[in-house]
Amino acid sequence: MQKEQAIKKLSSEIEELRDKNGYIQAGAPKFRGLFGRDSLIVAWQLLKYDSSIAKRTLLVLSKLQGEKEDIKTGEEPGKILHEYYPKDTPDKWWKEHKGYIKWLQRGRPVYMSIDSTPLFLIVFEKYLNYTKDFTLARKLFSCIEKSANWMIEYNTKGFFLKYERKTSEGLFHQSWKDSTLEQLKIEPPVAITEAQGYKYLALKSTAKTIKRFGKKERAKELLKEAAGLKKVFNRSFWLEKEKYFTMALDKNGKPKGRFSSNPGHLLFTGIIEKNKINFVVSRLFKKDMWTPYGIRTYSVKEPGFDVLSYHMGTVWPHDNWIIAQGFKELGYKKEEQKIKEALFRAFNELGYLPELYGVDKLNRIVKYPGACYPQAWASGALLNFLISG
Questions:
Q1: Which range has the worst mean pLDDT, 96-100, 197-201, 256-260, 371-375?
Q2: Which of 69, 308, 369, 387 is the most exposed place for a label (fewest CB within 10 A)?
Q3: pLDDT, tens only, 76-100
Q4: Do residues 355 and 368 touch, judged by C-beta distance below 8 A?
Q5: Domain boundaries, the chain
Q6: CA-to-CA distance for 386 and 389, rounded, in angstroms?
């Protein structure tokens, strides 16, 4: 398919998922709701396509920001939600949702996400830099401060963002790879690697924002927190023998999991020390991780790898797009181009770009049964690449 045809098709998929409130629903048929993580990432992807998507997403999420502690829903003061279906969500959409939370209700947000809050702060700053919409900045200023406070004062004891399920229902893992991830065999609370990078950039972004509004001392405090996080992160998560970052730390601070795509998300955040960056970039392109259709979520060498495992071997377009943003930030133009070409190759091979897909040992693309299509951050990933040149 030619570039212009692809842009037209991908744009139509985004428009199919555009909610009447202006944000982009996560996907179809199962996830036609507001997802903090998904909707923020697609808003970031589509800044050049339509910046109003980011504005509407930020506004809706700010109105649903956590105010109290509720163990059942995961709500905490200042926290940004994970998943929300408005009260008027049509029955035909609601019935498609295969609820992993038995008590999930229309009109009631759940907050079981470790990364929605830092992503909210990151996307806000990216939106502000792109649009110079200081009217929105003033409107959301209190929300921005509360989100930063959640990352520093409410969520953590020490520097790392951590999650732990506090109810028998809901999500055990609360990062983007929110399936069971049994290969970790980890004792919570869990400090997942990419969330630390998100927190680092969110702190720096928020410091920039609040400094604009005269809070210079608070900005200094956030930058000091970020500097401390970077130092302890590189010491605690780095596997010196493997020259790579571990996927997570357990409750005792011990590394769990080795070769996954997760550390690739660190590249755009700035948290990686300079002497480690080349190791991370080159590791992602080793044969056990790289395919002609993108980077796998999990190394073929690791126990539990499966070509069609949801998070332990498949290829996710949005995962690759985020990694590519790091390549772009750091000047790895060839590597960024390889990701772009890989996703376009998958798109042409399948005729569309779904939520995820597999790549077998002969480097043939394999459809994942039940993959959502359209999936907002998959369509948004390739659309971003194509409209950005």
A1: 96-100
A2: 369
A3: 999 999 999 999 988 888 877 755 5
A4: yes
A5: 3-387
A6: 6
